[in-house]
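Supplementary Methods. Inverse-folding protocol.

Structures were first reduced to a C-alpha cell string of length 374. This string, shown here, constituted the complete conditioning input.
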C-alpha cells in the first residue's frame, strides 16, 4: 500500500511541477519497494506525511500550460494491474531491473517523433537506495549524449544510506520539482583497469579502494542477515582486522588535473583512497569522507591504537588536518599496486588483482542532468 500511496501523491506533485513549464513533461519513477524508506514504518510515516503536504500544496497551484503525464514505459512496465504505471511508477522486482527499465525508457525517447512543438522533457526519478540509483543512472550514462540531454534525473532519499540522493531529506528533494530549479550536469567517476574486459567501472558519488571497500563488501554480504547498522559494525571490525586480511603495502599514486597535466606523485602504505565526483560528499550512510572542496582523500596506514583514536574523527569528517590524511583535487589518479585489493563504486564492490594494475580513476565530462535549487 505504501508504494501506491507514494505513486499517487508524487503524481499530483509532478503534474503541477514548475520544471520546464513551456515543455511537455513525462515522468517515470523507478521504485524499489524493499527500500528502507518504504519498509521501515517510522521512516515511511515521515515520508508519507511529507508527500501528503507537498501534494496538497501542489493542488493549490495552477496546472502546467504544457501538460505532464506518465511515460509510456511506466504505463507498460509496472508489472501489476496498471494502477502504479498509471501514476508513472514502475516497481523493481529483481536485480538489475532498474537498468532494464531505463533502457526501455531510452528506447521510448529515441522513438519520439518531432511534433513541431517543444521537445518533451523526461523526468527520471529513482525512489530507493544507492543501489537502485546506481543501476538506473549507469544505464542513462551509457546512452548517447544527445539522448541524455532530453532527460533530467531526480534521486529521492528512500533507502537506508542515501549518499547518492539529490537531497538528504525528502522534503528538500521534492522541492526541486515543486519550486523553481535549474538543470546542472554532474560528473561520473570511472575506474579503468589494465585487464582487457574488466571494467570500466563507474560511480556517481564516490569510487574508492581499500579499507572502506572491504567494509562495503562485507556489509553487502551480510545484508539481511545481521540486525542493526551492519555498516557501522564492519567499520569497527575493519579498524581492527583489515590489515591482517589484506596485506597493506606501498601504493604508488600519480595525480593529474582535468586537462591531463601532472600534479603530484607519492608512494605510501594507504588504508584507503576515495575519489569523489566532487568535494563535500559522503558515503556509508552519511560519513563525510570528503568534507572540503577537495575530491580525493588518501589515508595512510597507522598503528592500531592510532586507528582507534582517529576513527571518530574520520567518521565525523574532522580529519582535514590529520598527518595521516591527504585531501587534494584531481581530475585523474593513476595507481600502481602489487597486492589484491577491493574497490567500491557507490556501494557495489569488485576485487582487483595485481594484474589489474596500474589502474586509472578519473572524472568524466559533465554527463548526468540533475536538478539543483535556483
Amino acid at each position: 500500500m505504501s508504494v501506491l500511496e507514494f505513486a499517487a501523491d508524487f503524481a499530483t506533485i509532478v503534474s503541477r511541477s514548475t520544471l520546464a513549464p513551456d515543455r511537455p513533461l513525462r515522468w517515470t519513477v523507478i521504485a524499489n519497494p524493499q527500500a528502507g524508506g518504504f519498509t521501515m514504518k517510522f521512516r515511511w510515516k515521515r515520508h508519507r506525511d511529507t508527500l501528503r503536504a507537498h501534494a496538497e500544496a501542489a493542488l493549490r497551484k495552477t496546472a502546467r500550460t504544457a501538460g505532464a503525464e506518465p511515460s509510456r514505459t511506466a504505463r507498460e512496465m509496472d508489472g501489476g494491474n496498471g494502477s502504479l504505471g498509471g501514476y508513472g511508477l514502475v516497481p523493481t522486482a529483481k536485480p538489475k531491473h532498474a537498468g532494464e527499465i531505463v533502457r526501455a525508457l531510452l528506447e521510448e525517447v529515441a522513438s519520439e517523433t518531432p511534433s513541431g512543438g517543444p521537445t518533451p522533457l523526461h523526468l527520471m526519478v529513482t525512489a530507493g537506495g544507492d543501489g537502485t540509483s546506481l543501476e538506473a543512472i549507469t544505464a542513462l550514462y551509457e546512452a548517447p549524449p544527445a539522448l541524455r540531454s532530453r532527460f533530467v534525473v531526480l534521486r529521492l532519499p528512500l533507502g537506508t544510506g542515501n549518499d547518492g540522493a539529490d537531497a538528504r531529506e525528502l522534503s528538500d528533494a521534492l522541492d526541486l520539482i515543486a519550486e523553481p530549479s535549474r538543470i546542472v550536469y554532474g560528473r561520473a567517476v570511472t575506474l579503468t583497469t589494465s585487464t582487457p574486459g574488466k571494467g570500466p567501472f563507474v560511480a556517481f558519488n564516490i569510487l574508492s579502494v581499500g579499507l572502506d571497500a572491504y567494509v562495503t563488501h562485507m556489509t553487502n554480504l551480510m545484508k539481511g542477515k545481521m540486525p542493526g547498522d551492519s555498516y557501522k559494525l564492519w567499520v569497527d571490525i575493519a579498524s581492527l582486522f583489515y590489515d591482517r586480511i589484506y596485506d597493506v603495502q606501498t601504493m604508488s599514486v600519480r595525480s593529474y588535473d582535468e586537462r591531463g597535466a601532472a600534479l603530484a606523485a607519492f608512494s605510501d602504505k594507504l588504508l584507503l583512497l576515495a575519489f569523489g565526483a566532487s568535494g563535500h560528499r559522503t558515503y556509508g550512510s552519511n560519513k563525510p569522507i570528503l568534507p572540503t572542496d577537495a575530491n580525493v582523500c588518501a589515508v595512510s596506514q597507522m598503528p592500531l591504537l592510532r586507528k582507534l583514536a582517529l576513527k571518530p574523527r574520520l567518521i565525523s569528517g574532522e580529519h582535514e588536518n590529520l598527518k595521516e590524511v591527504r585531501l587534494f583535487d584531481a581530475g585523474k589518479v593513476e595507481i600502481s599496486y602489487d597486492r589484491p585489493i577491493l574497490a567500491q563504486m557507490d556501494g557495489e564492490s569488485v576485487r582487483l588483482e595485481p594484474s589489474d594494475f596500474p589502474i586509472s580513476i578519473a572524472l568524466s565530462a559533465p554527463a548526468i542532468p540533475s536538478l539543483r535549487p535556483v
